[in-house]
Task: structure prediction
Amino acid sequence: MSKPQFVYVSYIETTPEKLWEALTSSAFTRQYWFGAEVKSDWKVGSPFALLLDGEVTDSGEILEADPPRRLSYSFKHHKFEELRGEPTSRVLFTIEPFGPLVRLTVLHDGFVEGGKYLGAVSNGWPAILSQLKSLLETGKLLGIPRAALNKGFDAK
Result:
């Protein structure tokens, strides 16, 4: 039996370089990731942190960085008590040219069977990635509310 994972594939009208920048630059992430900032030097073994409203919500370590093709980091949640006890997971972004488009595949794995974290991630990533696609293609956001990140997860 396969382990629980989240996979999302999107085709975006952009370049691999612009997509890489959007994934690794706080100036970009603040726009589409509901105000969240990514902090790292993006070198293998370096720390990674995701900050929302100045608070570290998730942290990890850079596992792979091959600009502008692949980026992977470990991901440990800190914000919600119900999720803090779940194991560190892994996020992998694969960026592939596809004609005039870029194919972005996001794989988030390392979840425990029956845990709550996969459900939270499964609601959050589509909202984040939809905003990213819209921002890169049109320069505008979709207006998805931040509450969409926690849809289906009863965060107190």
